[in-house]
Amino acid sequence: MPSRPFHIVQPAERNTCVIFASPHSGREYPEDFLARAVVGGTDIRSSEDAYVDRLIAAAPRHGAPLLLADVPRAYVDLNRSAEELDPAIVEGARAVAHNPRIASGLGVIPRVVAGGRALYRGKIPLSEAHQRIATCWRPYHAQLGALMKEAQERFGQAILIDCHSMPHEAVDGVARHGAKRPDVVLGDRFGAAAGAAVVERVEAAFARAGLVTARNAPFAGAYTVQHYGRPLRNQHVIQVEIDRSLYMDERRVRPNGDFDAFVRVMSGVVADIALIGAAGDGALAAE
């Protein structure tokens, strides 16, 4: 078992309704899990959003809490529903109607890592899957739900920036259709998870930093965006996917020579986004 599923970094003074989270940058691999996995090293780490936690580390300095997974995505995926159990890897899990995430091996207990490489030989017991969910998934979402509730009670609204990374080739299709290759993809479930004014201001924060954005293609947002995004209730959630090649060597899963400079760029973006929900900012009152 991981020593802890997540940790939270609170600001000295909470002065914004914005919350930053990284559910896939965890890298504490339990020894018993590694012993059973048939992949290791950089292969098993390929499913991480490696170093995203460091890209958004400035959030508490700007009044926003920062929720970071410690448990790795290969062990349990915190951006899936607890019901998305894959019968192809979890012994005794019930088959469900077609679910593209489960079909691709990326349910709440993943069957594969990046590139479709199998994680295990055979299946894991249903009891083990339930234990991972109980000890990692549920505490993480209890904490996330509490942060959203606190923001709404204190500021009248909550804005969650759910941060991820994407392989460089993930946006090849966007570039082929004549658009500029995006550095960042913002997912709001085509308006269902966040109000237009919130998305526009988040997009503007990236644009001021010189980063090209796209919306909802190829990533519109997964479980966290779907579950927590309720703009009519002033609960806004945006999934942010950042091109890994901007800051890391994807093959070696290491920071590249541009890493420190990109951290500074992202620190500025984080500061800008935190201002969107700052106390006394009435710009989103009509949302």
Automatic annotation (TrEMBL):
A GO term, aspect molecular function: hydrolase activity
Pfam family, one: FGase
Keyword Hydrolase in annotation: yes
InterPro entries referenced in this protein's UniProt entry, alphabetically: N-FG_amidohydro
Top-level lineage group: Bacteria
UniProt entry keywords in alphabetical sequence: Hydrolase
Protein name: N-formylglutamate amidohydrolase
Protein source organism: Sediminimonas qiaohouensis
